[in-house]
Amino acid sequence: MDIIPGAWRRTAAGAGLLSPQGEVAPTIFAEMSAAAVRTGAINLGQGFPDEDGPSVVLDAARDAIAQGANQYPPGRGIPDLRAAISEHQQRFYGLDVDSDTEVIVTAGATEALTATLLALIDGPDDEVVVFEPYYDSYAAAVALAGARLRTVALRAPGFQPDLDELAAAVTDRTRIILVNDPHNPTGAVFTPQVQAEVVRLAERHDAIIVTDEVYEHLSFDSPHVPIATLPGAAERTLTISSAGKTFSVTGWKIGWVHGPAALITAVLTVKQYLTYVNGSPFQPAVAVGLRMPDAYFSDARDALRAKHRLLGDALSAAGFTVHTPQGGYFTVADATALGGTDTAAFCRALPERAGVVAIPLSAFVSAGHRADYAGLVRFAACKRTEVLEEAARRLSALHSTGSTR
């Protein structure tokens, strides 16, 4: 007896959720993290920091536990965190957000995104436009919602979309334009022209804009500009972010989504049947974090930019061609000169060759387009300086000998 419905099996397989044998498909992230453990390699594959966030935020979580914040919080999130999110959006971007009707606290940005897609997709004729390469959960969430995924390529060196290709992708079938800015995995920050075109196309085709802004405080060259701040955008934009990247607490899974009350109500209707609520003692701690002085946010940005510089210099010295990121956790480098045209094979061999783990950019690309990203590899810079320095030492062996640590 086949207890998994055929429609689900076909959808899941098409999104890469199932192997050809119908089993759960292991991700490249799990495979490479296992390789790091097996070989003792430095894991620059997955994007999680290896040091804790600010002590004032961690202490606030301990205090909340001690003071009894250990039961279900309100379904929308505790009022103080929702107020802090509203204050944060006003303080940094001049956005007016009603904390009572226009904000939901979620189990990280991934749940916010999934609940949004499940809430707003009407049927299989709806399309979701994303920029490719894309964070791997996007395709899975679109598949779960039963919509079609349409991609717009981001090409090296700048990883900005061609505006004509973007205009061709957005049609009257487009329900959602999903924008990740600063962008994972490429490290791109979209230009004002790209942002304006997204808004223009959304208005023309009556689409909703959903933004993933988890790296909002890690934009290196200029302050982050949410699409919701552009003229005509706020009434059709749902803005998603989280505490994980900003405060180096990725395991807390505290995210949020804000936007027009009617859209937020639709998202809440779905969200209440996913996790309902989460992270009760972490929510007041994140509220403390969002109210930290400006210096914390600028210092965190500057520290990560310096780590990217260290990593980029090491990759260049090892023989990679480096695409300097404009924001986020990741540096993309071209391994072609090191024999890395098949980047999946290159990354699988890298732990043994150099004692370092990375992720092929093809892991973030739909099956038909992987050849367009041959040679490109993603490295995480969000590690301690001494870890990156050791990674640099190990990577240097690639250029000089092409072999081991």
From TrEMBL:
Keywords tagged on the record: Aminotransferase, Pyridoxal phosphate, Transferase
Source organism superkingdom: Bacteria
Residue ranges of every copy of the Aminotransferase class I/classII large domain listed in the record: 41-395
CDD domains linked to this entry: AAT_like (cd00609)
Cofactor (UniProt): pyridoxal 5'-phosphate
Keyword Plastid in annotation: no
InterPro entries, A to Z: Aminotransferase_I/II_large, Kynurenine-oxoglutarate_AT, PyrdxlP-dep_Trfase, PyrdxlP-dep_Trfase_major, PyrdxlP-dep_Trfase_small
Any one GO molecular-function label of the UniProt entry: kynurenine-oxoglutarate transaminase activity
SUPFAM superfamilies from the UniProt entry: PLP-dependent transferases
Gene Ontology cellular component list: cytoplasm
Pfam families found in the cross-reference section: Aminotran_1_2
PANTHER family (alphabetical): FI04487P (PTHR43807)
Family designation: Belongs to the class-I pyridoxal-phosphate-dependent aminotransferase family.
Name of the protein in question: Pyridoxal phosphate-dependent aminotransferase
Species this protein is from: Microbacterium esteraromaticum
Lineage: Bacteria, Bacillati, Actinomycetota, Actinomycetes, Micrococcales
